[in-house]
Design brief:
The chain is an alpha+beta fold. It has 2 helices and 18 strands. Strands 1, 3, 4, 5, 8, 9, 10, 12, 13, 14, 17 and 18 form a 12-stranded mixed sheet that branches. A 3-stranded antiparallel sheet has the order 2-7-6, with no helix packed on it. Strands 11-16-15 form a 3-stranded antiparallel sheet, with no helix packed on it. The radius of gyration is 48 Å and the shape is elongated.
Amino acid sequence: MDYLTFFLAILHVYRALCEEMFWDTTVKLAENMSLECIYSSLDTLTQMEWFKINTTSRELIAIFSPIYGGVVKQPYTYRVYLLNSTAAPNDMTLYFHNASEADIGFYSCFLHTFPHGHWEKVIQVVASDSFEIAAPSNRHIVSEPGKNVTLTCQPAGKWPVQQVTWEKIQPHQIDILTICNLSQGKSYASKYQREIWSSCSQDMRSTFIIMPHVMASDSGLYRCCFKASTGDNETFVMRLTVTDGKTDNRYILFVAGGAVLLLLFVILITTIIVISYKRRRRQKELFKESWGAQNKAGNNYRNPNPTNQTSDGATEDVYVNYPAFSHRPKTRI
């Protein structure tokens, strides 16, 4: 009987080593980082624990009780804080100060609630160079607050789809929204802090998620990943922008101001062109009037004597008509 117990213990350890770890959120390692854990249900929290998941065991980091408060265990004292636990009963976010590569790994936010029992969120912390950067978005969706937003995508390939994953991408973390295993027809309900509706069936060729009553905090990049049984993968990235009233007013004022400035600029350019054209036309008219007056004055002061002379240089006789006088001397008395 002792051999059977030992064998079962070995089998349990082997399963723990070989079993693939599944996580809800991937966080990029930073000196000051936060592991977000927000419980969205209305259940009553009785106790919460933070663990670091090792290969065969779980290392207790912190424990919190709404009645007795929180305690941080060694060696995490003075490096780890539960800042929001007292202000918001459903916010059990863990804050790291002076984090290092030794903090890379998997973490578990484990909640005991009433009446639904326990709730767990697993977070993976990776090195900054291993953090996946999102590709440029393929589509942009704009919505007003309070609307239901539907994001859809469909693979271009004809290969059989085995798994579909929806994620929200942020600069410091990636949250899994939903996972659909088409081969089994099962979907995984994520631990994301807001409500997500999704579809999952074995025969579907496209997938969608619905976010009811969106808010400005829902803005960001969303990624849809298709994984085929043949090993092929296909990814779509889309950006969602949820506007608010202030943004709309600023945008309207910006557009209206731009239109007014453009109109004033057009009026100014048109006025300058018209004034310049009239000025050139007036100068042309004054030049014509001045030129005409100069020609008229030249005609009035022209020399009256004829300038034409005989070409052969011969002179003509000039005759003067005067009375004839007597040449007889006067008699003296």
